[in-house]
Design goal:
The protein has helices at residues 37-50, 81-92, 128-146, 148-151, 172-189, 216-221, 237-246, 280-294, 321-332, 375-384, 431-437, 470-476, 485-495; strands spanning 4-10, 16-17, 25-30, 54-58, 68-70, 76-78, 96-101, 155-158, 194-201, 203-205, 232-234, 253-257, 301-307, 340-343, 389-394, 397-401, 408-413, 443-450, 457-463, 499-504, 511-517, 522-527. With 529 residues, it is an alpha/beta fold.
């Protein structure tokens, strides 16, 4: 017999607060991409549909933003016009910046062109005094332009993944010195501005990886060990908190990147691609909460400023339904742990490895470059539909209530128990993704909600292999590498066409719903009247 996921509750039950931490922050590639009209249009769409409140991206001080240059005699020149255009566009669309302060502008970079197709200068600044003045002037400019009350609502994160060689060509000690200088520069503008770090990647086995450098031979030595038995910890975090406490530095939030499918890279850019257990993300988030609570900054917020099923912009799983179900499962298993879990990224307008070779190339985005929604877009849209009060939960489903309207919403998903790992990555081609999609058997979802108005209408929306699945529709068209405008319009329509049915509560105000969940499907149940 099919496995059954069952929930019973009342619309008038007291419930508990439900923080929508999953929609606090979303990621994007780099600042200059945010000057594009299509990027801005897609940001507006995910803001409206998925509720994202902040966006984070690299390259704030990269050469293509022209913020910092030097005259022939070495005199610094500051130009905020491109930043103004970008930040105006964010705020006009109801989204605030989660500011990542990095990388070095070319005149200050110890090494140049160290990472990405666009040549980010992932090296420490050669002059921390000039770096600090750049940070101070930039933040002060924002305060002048947008007002102190607005900028106090932003976050300022120091650098990105400084434990990875391409992103930071320096030691841990040099990053700590950079954090000290940057945090003090931010706070010199206003003492209530929020600053944090260390923005490291990733969770790795054992505290041995918390040293000044990463030793790949230690990675190799643990191969063959059951990775779920290892002690996975966030890189540098304990040492970072101790350093900041010793230097009396502000840490308003702690940030790191809990990708569940790979190790941190060594100084040669090598690493082992491993898929951790399906509960890796909720386990990591709960551990972070314990570490911060027991440390010198127990009141610091916790922001996971990058996260996805894998850290590769060429993982074909990202385009598929299992990626969406992985998002929903991970989020619902991580309630009450952190303040944000930022999906990386909202769009395939993303050029770290250059342009994607075709529409569905395994990019991070929940929207394709053409703006066609992938299943992950629907996952976040459905999560956003949940209320702010949790009424009931079980493994596979939750029921919530909206505090303003009283409307009840339920969300159910089917992550097949046969898949004991985080959704497997599919790097080289689509073979692994397609095998994963074919895994699993149907289950039943039984929902009973009492206390509704008699005859209350309820919409039941379904995302599955046949509905709202853009890449499946693309395959049915023959997987064209180059698409016509007509094909793109068709794919966009099919990608948005989730299946919706209408049910009603009975005369006693009881909703009884029994439905089949196909493997990897997600079902949203919403009271609509």
């Amino acid at each position: 017999m099919a496995e059954v996921v069952s929930l019973r509750t009342s619309a008038t039950a007291p419930g508990a607060p439900l923080n929508h931490f999953w929609s606090a922050v979303v990621g994007a590639g780099r600042a200059n991409e945010g000057l594009r009209a299509d990027w801005q249009a897609q940001l507006a769409e995910v803001r409206g549909a998925c509720g994202f409140r902040y966006v984070r991206f690299h390259g704030l001080f990269h050469d293509d933003m022209f913020v910092y240059t030097e005259d022939d005699d070495g005199t610094p020149q500051y130009n905020f016009q491109y930043l103004d255009t970008l930040f105006d566009a964010l705020l006009d669309r109801g989204v605030r910046p989660f500011v990542e302060l990095g990388f070095s502008p070319r005149p200050l970079a110890r090494e140049t062109g160290t990472v990405f197709w666009w040549g980010a200068h992932g090296a420490p600044p050669t002059d921390l005094d000039r770096w600090s003045e750049l940070v101070r002037r930039t933040v002060a400019h924002w305060v002048d332009r947008y007002g102190l009350a607005e900028v106090r609502r932003w976050y300022f994160e120091v650098w990105n993944e400084p434990n990875l060689r391409g992103f930071f060509r320096g030691t841990r000690g040099e990053y700590f010195a950079l954090y000290r200088a940057t945090a003090r520069a931010v706070r010199s503008v206003d003492t209530e501005l929020r600053v944090g770090g260390p923005a490291t990647s990733n969770f790795v086995p054992d505290s041995r990886f918390d040293g000044e450098t990463e030793d790949f031979t230690v990675h190799q030595a643990t191969l063959g060990v059951d990775i779920d038995t290892l002690d996975w910890r966030p890189v540098w975090l304990d040492a970072f908190l101790d350093f900041c406490a010793g230097e009396s530095l502000p840490v308003d939030f702690v940030s790191t990147h809990p990708y569940p499918t790979d190790w941190a890279l060594d100084e040669h850019g090598q690493g082992e691609k491993l898929t951790r257990g399906v509960d890796a993300t909720p386990t990591d988030l709960a551990l972070l909460r314990r570490i911060v609570a027991a440390g010198p900054y127990p009141d610091a917020e916790i922001h996971l400023t990058e996260w996805n099923s894998s850290s590769s912009p060429r993982d074909h799983t990202h385009d598929t339904l299992p990626a969406a179900t992985f998002v929903v499962r991970s989020v619902l298993h991580s309630l009450e742990t952190v303040d944000s879990l930022a999906y990386w990224t909202f769009t395939d307008v993303f050029e770290e490895g250059g342009a994607g070779p075709e529409m569905f190339h395994g990019g991070f985005g929940m929207l394709t470059l053409q703006g066609i929604p992938k299943p992950t877009f629907h996952a976040y849209r459905m999560l956003h539909a949940l209320g702010d009060t949790l009424l009931a939960r079980t493994d596979g489903a939750v029921v919530t209530r909206d505090g303003a309207t009283g409307a009840v919403t339920a969300l159910a998903y089917h992550y097949p128990p046969e898949v004991t790992r985080s959704v497997p990555a599919s790097f080289d081609d689509r073979a692994v993704a397609e095998r994963t999609e074919a895994t699993g058997e149907p289950r039943r979802f039984e929902l009973v909600v009492e206390g509704l108005p008699p005859g209350a209408p309820v919409a039941v929306e379904r995302l599955d292999g046949e509905h709202g699945n853009a890449v499946a529709a693309w395959r049915r068209l023959g997987s064209p590498r180059e698409t016509t405008r007509e094909q793109e319009r068709l794919l966009d329509r099919l990608a948005r066409a989730t299946h919706v049915e209408t049910h009603t509560a009975d005369a006693d105000g009881v909703l009884r719903l029994s439905t089949t969940l196909a493997p990897w499907s997600i079902v949203l149940v919403r009271q609509v009247g």
